[in-house]
Amino acid sequence: DAALERAGAPGARRKPDGSWVTAADHAAEAAARAVIAEARPDDAILGEEGGLGRGAPRDAHLWIVDPIDGTHNFMDGIPLWGTLVALRYGGRNLIGIAHCPELRETYAAAAGLGATCNGSPISVRAVPTIAEATVVFTALESWTELGLDGFIVELTASAARSRGIGDCWGHLLVARGAAHVMIEPQLNIWDVAALDVIVTEAGGRITRLDGGYAGAGGSCLSSCGTIHDDVLALAARHGWGPEGEPQS
User: Which of 108, 125, 155, 244 qualifies as a cystine partner to 208, CB 3.0-4.6 A?
Assistant: First the structure.
């Protein structure tokens, strides 16, 4: 894989939004773009690092690429990162692929066709209450910066088990039935488009924390489905308002 081949290479830097980018991010995106362009020359491609590209028809089938979801993990030698690719058309995410090279796992899903890991079907594992759930969540500081410490504390204290696991891996744990809830306060479309299809086709639910559509970005809650509304209600009690924005 283009990213894995460049693990540990120099050249990491921060982007204007504060997130990290490496030479491996650019190489992986270039490789994905080349494969898609050869197979589907009339389709548009949106990548985290390269944008939409010049002359791309906005009404075409749109491939969305996140070359390394979990760049900081990648930089630190933590194997919980992946390359995400989605196909979007008519405002819907139709195909989702999450390839985790260091784990040797590839998750794939298509609308109406179910979800798989390495070719074997996967599904969420339902629990009736938060008290019986395993909750995973992204970096604590991303919540404290929004003044939502209380939400995280109450949610994790109410659960049977909690772990701080960020990026795509947390959502994939829900899809495969290893966790029941994954939450993040802010995602871009390339972070979530593929996961939208995978979680949904595995039988779960994925929305923003205000209950709205998550497949184009914003806050994100993936769950096994049965306790989804309970988590949304808890988020609302802690001030999560319209459009996935916390309200003071």
Answer: 244
Rounded-to-integer distance, Cα 158 and Cα 198, Å: 27
For residue 237, give every residue at least 6 positions away whose Cβ sits within 8 Å of its Cβ, in sequence order, or none: none
* DSSP type of residue 237: H
User: Nearest CA to 135 among 118, 120, 147, 151?
Assistant: 151
CA atoms lying within 13 Å on the CB side of residue 213? 8
Phi, psi of 61 (to 5 degrees): -60, 135
pTM (2 d.p.): 0.92
Q: Are the beta carbons of 171 and 199 closer than 8 angstroms?
A: yes
Q: What digits encode the pLDDT tens for the residues 89-140? A: 988 999 999 999 999 999 999 999 999 999 999 999 999 999 999 999 998 8
Left (φ > 0), alpha (ψ -120 to 50) or beta: where does 222 sit?
beta
CB 227 within 8 A of CB 180: yes
* Ordered alpha helix ranges (H), the chain: 23-39, 71-76, 140-144, 149-158, 167-175, 189-201, 228-237
**Phi/psi zone of residue 16: left (φ > 0), alpha (ψ -120 to 50 degrees), beta?**
alpha
Interacting residues of 40 by C-beta distance below 8 A, sequence separation 6+? 61, 63
Question: pLDDT tens digit string along 142-189?
Answer: 898 888 889 999 999 999 999 999 899 999 999 999 999 999 999 999
Q: Where are the beta strands (DSSP E) in 111-167?
A: 114-117, 120-121, 134-137, 161-164
